[in-house]
Design goal:
The complex is a heterodimer of chains A (192) and B (172). Chain A has 192 residues and is mainly α. The termini of chain A are far apart. Chain B has 172 residues and is an all-alpha fold. Chain B contains six helices and no strands. In chain B, α3 packs antiparallel against α4 and α3 runs antiparallel to α6. The radius of gyration of chain B is 17 Å and the shape is globular. Chain B starts with a helix and ends with a helix. Classes of the chains: A mainly alpha (192), B mainly alpha (172). At the A-B interface, α1, α2, α3, α4 and α6 of A face α1, α2, α3, α4 and α6 of B.
Chain lengths: 192, 172
């Protein structure tokens, strides 16, 4: 193969996937662009955005991969229900990781900004926001990942190819949308 | 898995710090705020696709670490071409969304230029990081499938924000 053939093949294969994920990313950005007031009201929140988005991808991408491997190995039955112990274990571990890492990010962000002498919201506000965001986005993403992977598998689709795109396209949007929702809730409850 | 997640979070907080430094400009121009998640996402995606393709070529014995190698040069070229195609669209999309909901505050050409400049710089950086990491995995006899994608995705996330910061400072 020549350089040109390799390049043309790689370009054609990647373009549709990237177009879909770019559209998803733009809508996540639209939500973020609409929360300028909240970002101003809670200094330090913008610093947490990349960590919160990456954690969604890392934790729930891995959940999708685990369920996919379980289905392939026959450890999780295709006619699985939520009462399945292995499925429940994977979900609880993902939720726990997602919430713990989000709260840890809030504590580290607070320490970092305080150390640098930059303006930062009270620790309790940041922790409340990240805890609720971690929990709520976790429940939504778990539902999305489990539904798509299990139903896709029943219809003969490979869960390994499904889980990644589902998490990357919905993860950012769900992450930013729940961040906006919980920030408004915490500010409304007087945490700001 | 928790220790790895915490290390990755520390890296992501690094890109958060860059955003925090740019906060005033981003809040003044919501169009640029719209670009943040999509730039981070595209950078990571370009890097991870390249990394996956190079790992596969490497496993199939098709890859040699020579700048003139067909697979290396072809995949690198495709990454830059994808960035040149997609980032102006992303910039125009961000401007359009901002225009639909509020005053975009910046000219369409400015936003497209910021996106294109960030995209080209990111594509070149993604190629460099991926090739160096894949070569490192080869030298240390590690499986590139295990090592390269997590490193490349997270490094590209941080680079996405840093490059966007540079483009905004230079153009806006």
């Amino acid at each position: 193969m020549t350089v040109r053939e390799v390049a043309a093949g790689a370009y054609r294969e990647a373009l549709p996937v990237l177009l879909v994920s770019a559209s998803g990313g733009l809508f996540a950005g639209l939500v973020l662009g609409g929360m300028a007031a909240e970002l101003r009201a809670v200094p330090g929140l913008l610093l947490l955005v990349p960590a919160i988005l990456a954690t969604r991808g890392n934790v729930y991408g891995s959940l999708g991969a685990r369920i996919g491997s379980g289905l392939h190995q026959g450890l999780i039955d295709a006619a699985v229900t939520i009462r399945d112990e292995r499925l429940r274990g994977a979900i609880v571990a993902a939720l726990l990781n997602g919430v713990l890492v989000s709260v840890a990010a809030a504590i580290m962000a607070f320490g970092l900004l305080a150390l640098l002498g930059r303006p930062v919201a009270p620790l309790s506000t940041l922790v409340a926001i990240t805890f609720l965001t971690g929990l709520l986005s976790g429940l939504l993403l778990t539902t999305a990942v489990v539904t798509v992977v299990v139903f896709g598998y029943r219809r003969g689709l490979n869960p390994d190819t499904l889980a990644g795109p589902v998490v990357t396209t919905t993860g950012d949007l769900v992450g930013v949308a729940t961040l906006l929702l919980t920030t408004r809730l915490v500010l409304w409850l007087g945490g700001g | 898995m928790l220790p790895l997640l915490l290390v990755l979070t520390v890296i992501e907080l690094g890109s958060g710090l860059v955003l925090d430094a740019l906060q005033e400009t981003l809040l003044a121009y919501p169009t640029l705020l719209i670009l943040v998640p999509v730039t981070i996402g595209m950078a990571g995606n370009l890097g991870s696709i390249l990394a996956a393709r190079l790992s596969t070529a490497f496993h199939l014995g098709l890859l040699s670490f020579d700048p003139a190698d067909d697979h290396l040069a072809g995949n690198g070229l495709a990454t830059v071409a994808l960035a040149v195609t997609l980032f102006p669209l992303v910039g125009a999309g961000a401007w359009l969304l901002a225009w639909l909901v509020a005053d975009p505050a910046l000219a369409l050409a400015t936003v497209v230029l910021v996106a294109l400049a960030s995209g080209v710089a990111l594509a070149v950086l993604a190629v460099l990081v991926t090739v160096v990491t894949t070569y490192g995995a080869y030298r240390f006899e590690l499986d590139p499938d295990d090592v390269v994608i997590p490193i490349v995705t997270n490094v590209c996330d941080v680079l996405g924000v840093v490059v966007l910061f540079g483009a905004v400072r230079a153009i806006v």
